[in-house]
Amino acid sequence: MKIAYDAQIFFEQAYGGVSRYFCEIASRISKFQGLQVSITAPMHINAYLGQLPLQIVSGFRLPGTDHLPLSVRGVGMLIGDLMLRALSPDIVHETYYFPYRFGPRRARRILTIHDMIHEKFASDFASTDRTARFKLMSAERADHIICVSESTRRDLIELLGINPDKISVIYHGYGLINDAVPNVGETALSFNEPFLLYVGNRGRYKNFSGLLKAYATSIKLQKCCKVVCFGGESFTPSELEGMEKLGLNGGRVVQISGNDQVLATLYNSAVALVYPSLYEGFGIPPLEAMSFDCPVICSKESSIPEVVGDAGAYFDPNDIENICDVIERTVGSDSQRNLLIAKGRERLKMFSWDRCARETADLYRKLT
Length: 368
Known about the structure:
Blueprint: E1 2-5, H1 8-12, H2 17-29, E2 36-40, E3 57-58, H3 70-87, E4 91-94, E5 108-113, H4 117-120, H5 131-141, E6 144-147, H6 150-160, E7 167-169, E8 195-199, H7 208-216, H8 219-224, E9 226-230, H9 237-245, E10 253-256, H10 260-269, E11 272-275, H11 285-291, E12 296-299, H12 304-308, E13 312-315, H13 320-331, H14 334-347, H15 353-367
Parallel strand pairs: 1-2, 1-4, 2-3, 4-5, 5-6, 6-7, 8-9, 8-11, 9-10, 11-12, 12-13
């Protein structure tokens, strides 16, 4: 059976969760007997593709850029379509949302939907953003859809009216690139006091502002812990102004960027990961944290309880007092944090990229 992944996401992301997902499953599925895997990504910008076996990837990474001009992307899409047609795969797994199909019409179409953020938080996006419309078009033409959680599946059915019979749930795996390990000698991370860790971008639905408000109301937390934010861009002027209004001065909240080695060090050193999001399609950081014995304090919204299970200390992300209370109680109790660590080790057994790839390959076989 020939399985092909189109180029869409590899034109869009140098790094990112969606392109990472496809590289993780493609590399594993290519080792399964009777399955031939191809990623057709001419002139891409994605860093992960360079870590895959050469025989899987058709295309090359453009040097020195993490953004493709629209004209170059258009040419790349056209070439990618021609490559798919020449390959004549049995299954085309579309890697993002586009109004038109790529490759031969006879191929069965698979689409993975990772979240419904554009539909649930439409006001957070520009009026010119067409992701939601393109997602609907892609979902309607797909022969089958993979959702990464039951929560996302329910949202897809409710918001887009997709037939439940053509949707399967396959959980993500977890793990940092190249099995990154902590480097305790990392000088950039030599904090002289404990810290709470926040991972990811800080858009509205991520509720970073809720975490800051909770932290600002607690003298106890400010005395015992900093807040370290990993990823996203540097703090914006409006974020810095907001922190000043909350009285969070003197380097109590810091932002760090870096590779997976840096992130591993942070997970290994943090008092806890705080994950305050109002919505997640899946949510990998809590699983990553568990893998480094970092306790998880998290929101009880959307897919988060489905993923974290009994291995998290939960709060209502819309209740600042509750966020503060749960963080204080968890940080202040070694026994509670040790219990969360032990439960996290058990919870991790439910999730792996090997399992994700195996279940995805089983779906491919059923559709042909």
